[in-house]
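Example 3.
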Amino acid sequence: MVRSVAFAVLLLAVARVSAHAATIQISVQNMEFSPTVVSAKVGDTIEWNNKDVLLHSATARNGDFDANLPPKKTGSVVLKKAGTIDYYCRYHPNMKATINVAP
Amino acid sequence: MFVRSSTALAVICLSSSIAMAQGAKLTDPEIAHIAYTAGEIDIKAAKQAIEKASNKEVKQFAQDMERDHRAVNKQALALVKKLKVTPEDNDTSKALSKQASEKLTELGKLKGAAFDKAYIENEVAYHKTVDSALETQLIPSATNEELKGLLQTGLKIFQGHEQHAEHVEADLK
């Protein structure tokens, strides 16, 4: 009995986390992040899909993350804290975008 | 002043050499050769800069140019192979190569900050010229849709390079 209650609680906890955490897709194509501004919550995953034949990166100006995005590959980060994060591509500094992270 | 006027002159020469072919419509094999040659020229310039540049930002820019133009030209080669097109040498690509080798020699004589400045100024001017040629001549003349698409992607990339070069140039001042 105790064990099954514990299991139910665990299931509930898992369901709660997965219901909250979302994966937000950002496309990287023709030297542009799209969309350039996204809204997310702490715990969400940002996944960049690099469709270019070029090496890109998603590098946060505040140092929160630095994801390498090889040609035709994806890269992702999990958002750890709230705030506005401006990021750019290290190899093409004119590529810029923003993530608004809510608590 | 000398550097600036010689850069301006190079741009004029380059523009007029691309304009030479304007009379007769460029064919797809000619367009492919011009686009590929333009990429190879920037790779050679980048190699020289990786070796000679003293400023860290300039050196990194050159590394970015080498990597990007290699990636684009690799894609261009794959496309011409797929389309069974043999790139054809022509007056425009010949003129481009000749001017580029003169520029390499000219830059080869410079050192330190003078080299960095001249290389970046030439990169701004060169990308401007190539972007304008892509926009006004190569893209409108291309008949194959896949070739046209690749040139359009190339234009986006080279416009990004132009902005990047302008940014580095501003930082040097």
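Residues 2-7+27-172 of chain B form a domain with the Ferritin fold (CATH 1.20.1260.10). Chain B has one domain: 2-7+27-172.
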